[in-house]
Amino acid sequence: MTATANILESASPRPRSRAWIGRLGEFLVVGGITPFLFPLAWLLRRSVGLDDAQFAAGFLTFYGAHVINDPHFAVTYPLFYRDVRGRAFGGAFAPMQRIRYWIAGIIVPVGLAAWGLTAITHKSALQLGLMIQLMFLLVGWHYVKQGFGVMTVLSARRGVRYTTRERWAILAHCYAGWAYAWASPYDPSRQVEEKGVVYMTIAHPIGLERLTHVVFLFTIIPLAWVLVRKWRKEGRLPIFTPLIALLSSIWVWSIYSSIDPVVIYFIPALHSVQYLYFVRLMRGNEAKEREGPPLFEVSAKIRLGTLAITALGLGWLFFHGAPTYFDDLFVSKRAAFDSPLGPTPYFAAIYTFVNIHHFAMDAVIWRRDNPETRYLLAQDLNTN
Q1: pLDDT for the residue 336
Q2: Of 35, 44, 62, which Cα lies nearest the Cα of 253?
Q3: Which residues pair with 200 in a beta bridge?
Q4: CB within 8 A of 260, min separation 6: which ones?
Q5: Mean per-residue pLDDT for 23-43?
Q6: Torsion-angle region of residue 49: left (phi > 0), alpha (psi -120 to 50) or beta?
Q7: What pLDDT digit, counting tens, does each position of 113-167 carry?
Q8: Tens digit of pLDDT for each residue in 161-209?
Q9: How far is 222 from 37, CA to CA, in rounded Å?
Q10: Is pLDDT at 382 greater than 50 in this prediction?
């Protein structure tokens, strides 16, 4: 999410009370609610004990994933594969963006599908385990890149923009955070189980953990320099909400995600809500533009409602319907428990496929090269 197009003409101002509600709502959904979860989790543990608190959090987030996490993955598909002909063969995208579209839309899914099917066919927990570990490697990259995009877009909506040098200073902190989150904790290689698949992890030497930690701490200096320089040069720094979004994505959701045994259950949902807010922002502003003259297309509410229903349906299909169907059809439950792939290898493969493909598609959808990202800067909310 790194759109830097010109801001569209602002809509008429909202009443002061509604503007305040809009600012507060944006702050909470992009990451601002995160600090408040820690005292709430502490009170819950004090009241019912750690075991019951974890059970309640796990129960809530397991079922909540049906309407938050799963749709956040699934909505990427209608966003990405919309107007396939124009994007892949026409003039909707510039040449380099069209190449990225081909890679993310064809090469990546075909390669992942071949990888997963080969692993299942050969009953190779090693191959499927490597695919799962690739997912875990990339998820950190996805989190910090989204945090960077959220910060830059929300800052731009408040009239604050960053030079190329400033952007790289912020990105350095993001990438260093991703590296440290992946390298920590130290792992000499161990046997683990994920979605029924039993495999050996890739070793994370203690030296790698220490090195990435030092680099990460060092990158705080240029990040602080950017913020102080903005304040001294421009005389104001109206980026509290964008900064909270960035630091939540890097520090809390990625690096120190396990600092609280209850809050950790909610991190995927927090990331997903942040993502869905920007889907609503981009698609909602586009729908409002198209429902008016000269197009007079269907209302924005119908467009957004249709997109939400599509995301819910695809989310159920990807993470429940299709995996259950294939595992029931092709996997012998009696023999599966003696296999390192476990009783649900198709669930493991499809789950991993959708995650990695989601990361690849996002790298195209939210680039500033995508002309549709201009809708992210349309001032439909008074959040200055």
Answers
A1: 62
A2: 35
A3: 191
A4: 37, 38, 41, 42
A5: 95
A6: left
A7: 999 999 999 999 999 999 999 999 999 999 999 999 999 999 999 888 899 999 9
A8: 899 999 999 999 999 999 999 999 989 999 999 998 999 999 989 999 9
A9: 29
A10: no
User: Cα(109)–Cα(96) distance, rounded to whole angstroms?
Assistant: 19
Per-residue burial over 182-196, b = 16 or more CB atoms within 10 Å of its CB, e = otherwise:
bbbeebeeeeeebbb
Give the tokens for residue 82: 């919309």
Which two tokens mark 51?
């075991």
Chain length of the chain: 384
- Whether 364 and 81 have beta carbons less than 8 Å apart is answered as no
pLDDT in tens, 35-77: 999 999 999 999 999 999 999 999 999 999 999 999 999 999 9
Token pair of 220, please?
């705080």
Long-range contacts of 243-247 (CB under 8 A, 24+ apart): 243/151, 244/27, 244/30, 244/31, 244/32, 244/34, 245/30, 245/31, 245/32, 245/147, 245/150, 245/151, 245/154, 245/274, 246/147, 246/148, 246/150, 246/151, 246/170, 246/174, 247/31, 247/147
Task: Tell whether the model's pLDDT for residue 333 goes beyond 90.
Answer: no
Question: CA–CA separation, 5 vs 310, rounded Å?
Answer: 28
Query: How do strand 191-194 and strand 197-200 relate by DSSP bridges?
Result: antiparallel
Structure tokens at 14: 């909202």
- Per-residue pLDDT at 111 exceeds 80: yes
